[in-house]
Here is the input.
Amino acid sequence: KINLQDARAIRRELAAVYRDARAGKIETQDATRFGYLLNLLGQAYEREVLENRLEALEAQQHEQNTSQALK
Here is the structure.
């Protein structure tokens, strides 16, 4: 099983696909497909990270507003 749990792992897999294509271990057409899918996974991961950060900031802002309203 390939670990694709974070951006670093996705980047490593993308580099491995590139190396395999350069070495002739996989067809260029397959490498293109794998690269495309890995790019989509990277974008999805990036969106998830940004969404989580935004939710944390919104929760922090809400707590600050609630705290100030109680004073």
Observations:
- The radius of gyration is 20 Å.
- The mean pLDDT is 94.
